[in-house]
Amino acid sequence: MQIYLDIKNDENSSLAERLAYIDFKLQFTGFVKRSEIGEMFNVADAAASKALGEYGKRFEGNIEYDASLKVNVISKKTFRSMLKFDAEIALGMLANGFNKNKLLSPSSNLIAYEKIDRVSNKLSVDYVAKITRAISGGYCIECKYISENSPNHGTRVIAPLAIMHDGTTWMFRGYHRDDPDGKFFKNFHFSRVRDVIELDESKEGKVRSHETLNSDKEWNTNIPLELSLHPKLDEKMKQHIRLDFGMADDANDIMIPVRCSSLW
């Protein structure tokens, strides 16, 4: 984050935030639009264009203009991010929106705060960025996947479709082409992906209509999941669980709507 902090502290805080947003969008979605900058920072087109121009001057080799798409895109071969944060923060910002406070040190917390950590997966920022760019761009990736349920750890082609988080683990929903078991729509763990190659320049790499979320029946089917207190629990433990889950004092069941794709 040093480049960001240097610009923020020595030059202009607003400029630093706009440059960081452009950098983040390029790395994790593959493109950035002038209108997005305007909406994010509530500025006019002229100010958004100025920020893009400034980014291009300071970080030459990171950004180029795609005349066919009429949008600013990442220069993949020469891109070097001005931001250095871990993949989980990036995924959280993709899910919840760009947050400039995530670019600052822990001392910037408004009140005392401590994250209770688990053993980190140490996700690869490079792999995560390639996968999220594929989701944003609508194309496939080629990768190796260390599956828990299959001995096949060879190269496969996946169309990444959406990111997912269960409170502990980051995953993505995707379509596995040529799956030998015929179960094409699956959940994949970011931590198990290896050797990711983007197929955006290949005709075969474009996501086909039957490979999109619209065709994923499990993703689009919501069902009521009924969870019940275990009958062997004593009343004291049942009351603890009721409090934790916001259940009525005499309730033994809770109904939760979930996607079929999340039933695990």
Descriptive account of the structure:
With 264 residues, the protein is of the alpha+beta class. The chain contains 8 helices and 10 strands. The strands form 3 sheets. Strands 7-6-5-4-8 form a 5-stranded antiparallel beta sheet. A 3-stranded antiparallel beta sheet has the order 1-3-2. The chain is globular. 26% of the residues are buried. The model has no long low-confidence stretch (mean pLDDT 91).
Q: Give the end-to-end Cα distance, rounded to a whole number of Å.
A: 37 Å
* Major sheet summary line: 5 strands, antiparallel
Strand composition percent: 15-25%
**Low-confidence segments:** none
The sequence of SSEs as H and E is: HHEHHEEHHEEEEEHEHE
Question: Topology, please?
Answer:
Layout: H1 2-10, H2 13-29, E1 31-32, H3 34-41, H4 45-58, E2 63-66, E3 71-74, H5 87-96, H6 125-137, E4 141-145, E5 155-165, E6 170-176, E7 185-189, E8 193-198, H7 217-220, E9 222-228, H8 235-245, E10 253-259
Antiparallel strand pairs: 1-3, 2-3, 4-5, 4-8, 5-6, 6-7, 9-10
Helix pairs in contact: 1-2, 2-4, 3-4
